[in-house]
Every structure is written in structure tokens, then in C-alpha cells.
Amino acid sequence: MRQAVALRVLASLALTLALGPAAARAQGTLVVQNSTEPPGLDLTATPASATAGVVLYNIQECLVKVDRHGKLVPWLAERWNTTDNRNYTFFLKRGVRFHNGRELRAADVKYVFDRAMNPETKHPYPGYYAAIGDIIVRDDYTITFALKSLNANFLLNLARQGSVIYPREAVDTLKSEPIGTGPFRFAEWVRGDRIVLARNPEYHAKGLPKLDKVVFRFIPDPNATLAALKAGDVDASLFGLGPEHAQELQKDPRFQVIVGDTTNDVILAMNNSRKPYADVRVRRAITHAINKADVLKGAMFGMGRILGSNVDPLNPYFVDLAGAMPYDPAKAKKLLAEAGYPNGFETVLKVSPQYDYTVRSGEIIVDQLQKVGVRVKLEQIEWGQWIARVWREADYDLTIIGHAEAWDISNYANPKYYFRYDNPKFQELFQKSEVTLEDKARRELYLQLQRMLVEDAPAVWLFMHPRLVVAKKGLQGLWKDLPIPSADLSEVAWTK
Amino acid sequence: MRRYVLRRVATLVATLVFVSVLVFVVIRVLPGDPALIIMGTEGSPEAVVRLREALGLNRPLAVQYADWLRRALAGDLGVSIQYDVPVSRLILSRLPLTLPLMLMAATLMLLTALPLGLYAATRHRRVGDYAAMVLSQVGIAVPSFWAGLLLILLFSVRLGWVQSGGFAGWAGGVWPGVRSLLLPAVALGLFQAAVLVRATRSSVLDVLREDYVRTARAKGVSEVLVLGKHTLRNALIPIVTVAGIQLGQLMAGSIILESVFALPGIGRLALGAITARDLPVVQGVTLFVASCIVLINFAVDLLYGVLDPRIRYE
């Protein structure tokens, strides 16, 4: 008798336990895993990709949008025109409403860009707007940007995360409760746990969004993420899993694994101002000594693409230069001997374990460089230290990091950047590319820039970090590639 | 007694001041300030400088500390750099998770360790004793984060009984909240119990060798009374000491387990704040945790007097 009662209690307990939140989840809800919690939700105050991953194109939008193929398309501005590439007039889409119910007007756009250009507001990307001279409101739906100088990236910059449009009355709460015109409204932020977005019923793009609710759950640990996916507690991981997990989940019939391209170039940076890397022969030797195919295989399970220069495959001016400086250890040794290092040298490679791929790539590279006589000490440092020591003070010999920003070849034109690469010819050519708007001519300049980098070898471009998305089967509309750091979920839906 | 309490309060204040100075200096000595980390590699250097000024980080360290201390004394722990929310509110918002988790883990720890330790002592050098010791050895050797992952794999992924992580909160009733804390409490409590099992065993073994136990047994007192009344109570002082230390360990262990189970508790708040160099939060959390540990020690000291009336507080 007593046993029967105990069994009944156990059975009811098991039933209660089994009815988890996964079972109760509505069809219109998507639970997405995020590894990093955003450091605030104000895109005009932080450049964090964790913030962009939640806010950009979901809560807030721009005049122009980078679509899933990397193409610039009209968005809050339904069209624009320019006759001289100096004066751009934008015609705003009518009837677009902010989440507080007020209609978007040209004065809002002017306010947003005046604020971004004001040094007092601490905008993270003041350089994007440096070419803007004047902003003139023609009427409620028409606005003109008058540029001081030609700027080939002007339209692109208007589509980036710092250029989101918000109502001026919400400026003080952007960090914690952002308001925009996006397909989803901000609903709730339980710090440390989740951010919830709710469908914007008044969204200006017809038929969108398709989901009712999006929950971004912060799960920092990749193993915990894997377990959450398998247990059905999260539906998708857009950035949180490594290639080792993707490979495992590819075999699981419950999931779809999307492997796409990104703008994230993983490089082995060399301190060009320090001996022996100040000598181009040493830099070339290091490039020849690295077998990138093995690095990609070992660090990324072969996912991603080998790079030869600092333009990512999503860039329209990308040229495949992966074979331009091939793996050739004999040549590397010869170059080292010519540079006065016949027996190699000792050096330190600093990496931050915050990004697994840097450590994994580093371990393989240490071994490869050893074979040409370069004895590398691998030093792991915390991310805050990496930013302060390596990135800001250039206190390093070698380092590995992914550069996720699109069109970041500009970094090589900045002699103060942590590469400390100072080539006036490159700088001049880059400046020319910035004011050349004609596509063919600009393409030619970009080709020259990429080739010049290959020759000078200021860094070793290892591979493009792939986009690895794992989602439950039945989820549609996710971006395959990542031309901009956004997790645009407006077109995502569950198949019925 | 009053003098004793006053002395303990003075110790608490001194500890907190010392800890706050230490944390302030250590966090500032580490390379990478909050402005740099917030702006990351993509923000412009000018933006970093302006943010640093806005956060007041360009002032001398002593001025910053004095300013923080003045506010803290008035009950204002400052505003989180990362979240833009008052630190005290952040800490309070994490307590409904961390306190029940600690409580559940501590209960599990005590309910497992005391009977198991007692059992091992009474079966000294017999199979039961060896089995208990092997179990506790495994508990000491297995890191709690790994135990946590194994528990997730078994109970969430394989059996689907509980969710793999996250906290349901208390709004939907007690059970959903307790359920979401079950696995982490087990990972934390049972595996922390391992050390306490050993302490209980050795302490009970010592007392079992005492003359008064032999006398009690010779008088024909039942074994339950011998163990419960004569042995356990006298063995409790070292056990309580170890348990007090283990409670502090639970707090440390929760930092990692909260990450494994994606729980928004005090531990994860601290970890995130250290990574982001969110100094006001690091300071606030450290003070909170230090106060808790000092208070636990205080409670342990008071318990000595309850357990052994011969102990006087002077």
C-alpha cells in the first residue's frame, strides 16, 4: 500500500517536471541564445556587437539598410537622389511610426545626426559623420545632407549601427529601453538573464514581422548552450557555438546548421614598428611559414575561408588572394636568413581566451613557426588586458584576433593603429579610394590596395571566421551570411 | 557579550574597508579601463577619452575612492557602468535567486554530509565507511561545473525533467522557481558536502573514543541516544567550523555554476562586472559577499556558545 502511494507521488512529480516551459512555448515565440549580454542597448553609445545583435534592425532601423546579401537598400528613406555626390536628398517613407506611436519626421533624422556629430554626446563612430557639413530639413518627409567632401562610404555609414533613428523624446532611455521604428518593440530586460522583444503591430513593412515574441537568453557557456538546444529550451544560437559543436549538431536530425560568410577576418597581427617585424622580409617569412589550411582545419574544423588579404568575401571588391603568398617553409627560412636571422628568433604571441579560435589558431601557429626556427611563446591574457596592452598601446610582438568590421581595410591606412603599419603609398591610395565613387575605378583601387597589402605583409590574414547558426528545423528566414553585425529576425518564422 | 559583539562589528567594518580598498586598487591596476572595454576595438580613441571623462575615471585614484566611500556611507553604492542601473538595485534583483540557491545547496549539503559522516564513523574501517569515503573522495575530485554539466545532460537533455538553465522566477509560484534551481543546488550542495562528510566522520570518530561514550554504552544507553545525544552534539564544534567555511565556498562555487546554468545571480553579476571593469558593481558585490561571509563566521562563533555552554564570549 505504502509503495503504491509512493509510486503515485513519484509519477505525479515526474509529470509536473516534464511539463517544462519548452512544452508551454507558443508557436510565435523564438528563443535565441546569446553568449554575451549587451553592455547597454544604446547603439549611439556603444560599438558592442552584442548590442547590435539585439537592437540593430530589430528594434531600431536606419534610413538605409544592408540586406541579407550585403546590398544597400532604401529603408526608412524610400528613396534618395544626388546629382553631385555631395548633396544627398532623402525622401522618408510616410506613415512610419516609432514604438511610442509618434510618426517619424525629417526633424527626427536631423536631430539624430546632429547629436551623433556633437562631440559631447560620446558617439562611438564620430568618423562616420565627419564629412557631413550641413543637414537641411526641406519638409516633414524630405531631408538633405550636404557633404564637405566626397565620401564613398557615406550611404553605407548611414546603414550602420551608429546611424539608427530614434525619437528625441526617448534619448535618455536608449541605454535601457530603446525605442525605434523596428519590427519588434523592446518589452523587458531581466539583467543577466534575458531580453524580450514583442511584435510591433504597426510595423511599416507589410506582413512583417512574422514572430510574436523574441527572447534573447544569455548563456555564456557553449556546453550549456548545446545542452539548452538539445533540451529544447532554446530554439537557435546565432553566434554562440563553435565549429566543434556545429559539426556535432549537423548530424542531429532535429537541427539545421547554417554555415555562412561574415566580414570577420581573423588575422595574425605583427607589430610593424618592432624588431624584427619592422623588416618586410621577416613579415613575408612569417607569412610563408604558416600553413593556413592546417590552421583552418585545426582551429575551425575546416569551416570558414582562407584569406590572402584584408577584404572579406562579402565585400563587392573582394579578390581571392589566398594563394598569393603560399605556404613555403624553405622560402621562409631563406627570407629569415636574408634578414639576418638564420637561426630564427624568440617572440611572444599574445591571445585572449575570450575568443577560443585565437588560442586554437595560436597553438597551431606556434608549432608551424617553430619549424622555421621562430620560437614563439604563447601568452594568454584577459580581454580587458588585450584591449589595453595590445590594441591601445601596441605592446606586443604577435597577436591573433578577428576584425569583424566591414570595410576595415582603412585600419592599414592609420599608422597609429596597433599594427603600426606606416606606408604613405598605401595611405594615399586609400584616401583616393575614399573619394572615388565610380564603381569601376574604385574596384581597381581596392584591387591595388589588397595587392599592396599582400606584398607588404603587415599581417597574416588567416581565415574568414564563418557564421555558424544552429536552429531547430522548421525555423525559416534566418540570414545565411552576416554582412553587418545584426541578428535581423523580421522575416524569421516557424513553418506551420 | 556586548563587548564581544562590538568587537565583531568593528572587525566587520575594518574588513569591509580593507576589502573595498583592495578591490578598488586591484581593479584599477589591471590594464583595461571600463571606457576602453565599453568602446572595444571599434570605437574611436576620442570617444574613449570622452567616455573616460564622463565616467570620472580621469580623476586621481584617491579622489575616486573618497568619492565612492562618501556615497557608500550614505547608502549609495553608485550606478552600474554597464547597465546604467543603481548597484543596490542590481544586487537586490539578484538575491531572489542567489539566496534560495544558497539555502537549497546548504540544506542539501548538511542533510547529506551529517548522516553520511555519522554513518561512516560508526562503520569505522568496514565496508560502509570505505564506501562513504570513496563517495566523498569523488565529490572532492569532481569540479562542480562538470557535475553541473553532467546533471544537465542527464536530467534535461536525456530525461527532459527540468529545463537546462535559466531561472523561472517566483512570479509563477514557488515550484517553478524551485525546479529551476534544483540542478544547480544539487551540483553545488552535494559536491560541497564531500568535505563536510570527512570532517563529520573524523570528529565523530574522536568523540566515539571518549570515556563518556564508553560509559554510556556500558550503562546500556541505546545506540541512537549514544550517537544523537552524547556523540554528535560534542562532535559538532569542528563540524560547524567546517560547515561555515563550506558556506563561503558555496558562494564562490556559485560564480561558475551560475554561468553553467545561465542563472542571473550574484555570482554571474560579479563575473560580468569584472570582465567589463564595472567598478561600482564589483565594489558593491564584493562588499555584499564579504559582509555575508563575516556574518556567517559571526553566526558560527555564536553557535559555539549554544553547542557548548562552557564557551564564554569576552
Could you explain how this protein is built, in words?
The complex is a heterodimer of chains A (496) and B (314). Chain A is of the alpha+beta class and 496 residues long. Chain A is built from 14 helices and 21 strands. Chain A has helices spanning 2-18, 21-24, 49-55, 106-117, 154-158, 222-231, 243-250, 280-289, 292-300, 329-338, 356-370, 383-392, 424-434, 439-456, and strands at residues 29-34, 64-66, 72-74, 77-82, 87-92, 132-139, 142-147, 184-190, 194-199, 213-218, 236-237, 255-260, 265-270, 305-306, 346-351, 375-380, 398-403, 459-464, 467-472, 475-476, 493-494. In chain A, the strands form five sheets. Chain A has a seven-stranded mixed β-sheet, with helices on one face. In chain A, helix 11 (356-370) links the parallel strand 15 and strand 16 (375-380). In chain A, helix 8 runs antiparallel to helix 10 (329-338) and helix 13 packs antiparallel against helix 14 (439-456). Chain A is globular and about 70 Å long. Mean pLDDT of chain A is 91; it is low at 1-25. Chain B is globular and about 85 Å long. Chain B has helices at 2-29, 34-39, 45-54, 61-73, 87-122, 127-141, 144-158, 174-208, 211-219, 223-260, 266-275, 279-307. In chain B, helix 10 (223-260) runs antiparallel to helix 12 (279-307). By secondary structure, chain B is mainly alpha-helical. Chains A and B meet through helix 1, helix 6 and helix 12 of A and helix 2, helix 3, helix 5, helix 7 and helix 11 of B.
